[in-house]
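User: I'm new to structure prediction. If I give you an amino acid sequence, what do you actually give back? Let's try with this one:
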Amino acid sequence: MTEIDWKLSQDIQLLRLVTVGSVDDGKSTLIGRLLVDTKGAFEDQLLSVRRKRGPAKESEIDLAMLTDGLAAEREQGITIDVAYRYFATPKRKFIMADCPGHEQYTRNMVTGASTANAAIILVDARNGVMPQTKRHSHILSLLQIPHLIVAINKMDLVDYSEEVFKGIRDELGAFCAKQGVHDLITIPISALKGDMVTVRGDNMNWYDGPTLLEVLESLEVTDHIDEKPFRFPVQLVNRPQTPDLPDYRGYMGQIVSGTIRPGEEVIALPSMQRSTVREIVTYDGNLEEAFAPQSITLTLNDEIDISRGDMIVKPDQMPKKEREFSANVCWIGDEPLSVRKKYWIKQTSNLGKVMVSGIEFKTDIHTLDRVSTSELAMNEIGRVSFKLQKPMFFDSYAENRATGSFILIDTFSYNTVGAGMIV
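Assistant: Good question. You get back a string of structure tokens that encode the predicted 3D arrangement of the chain. For your 423 residues, that looks like this:
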């Protein structure tokens, strides 16, 4: 373990997790199980849920009600919004997003999954691989979530059958392999009964792998982002102009990849002006080294033109500079995406204008075939070509998830209408 890996393991110990699946696969119940078994649910929450069950069932807990917070969700029995929950074990802290299962809420799912380190794809053992299972696994493969876990749920309703488990595992594994995902972790569970979630239980002795919680506690979180080229999008220029700091100019933001030390040469984009790092300032004092994903303030030895939306990099680690590019796009707007439409594009802290120059294809999520089309409708996924009003600095999404991703914003309503991954 490198010194930076050790620092990250000591300072962060946080896994951002997302759960996805079809309607009624039991996502909310699974999260409720994790919250209860890890003491992540407060006593007043448990008491409130018990009371809603009525006097006859006051001792029972409806695990799903711990996460389904909206009134509409309670009435329909489905998850609509992205519900975030926090829990911890002695080994790790977790932020878990419970994402919608219904197709019409795919955009909510994309939002919840965009920052995740790992994803749980939940499958109902009775139904097997559903169309939404394929849709979600395809989106997760495009987002390049580092760790994909398939939890085959409701094993208690198929008599804990090993054959059912293996059939679903092999079918979904073959589908994901077509997308370049070969390291799926597949676990049989019963969220309602608790088998293989936090404890092994007594009903699936044929399974000799780890429980779901054991997997979550052992996953690597850092993704080696400290080893990638240095990228520092500037979010704010700090100029207090106080009597004791009349000329102070600090550039604030989060390091999205790489490392930086005082004295190292840097270059500001797009101005291409060079300088060296004077200080790395944090709330706890100055640092001799900073690394992703720390939030810091950089001061430089020269006064150069830098503003919000610019990016500070190292001269020998330059990103691409282009006015045209292609990207995989998840379309979440009410109005379809079509050629020659113009949008705002937000990439890191940079905001600009972009025009759709072409739609190369859309993906049939059932077969993964590429289909010719003139537009992308809501919840459809495809490869789109763009032309920028001014050049943009970026990496491919495969190289850097932060600088290779963007959102599209409608120029009239200012609603977010698309999420893209640059190829």
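You can read the tokens as a compact description of the fold. Here is one thing that stands out. Residues 162-177 form the longest helix (16 residues).
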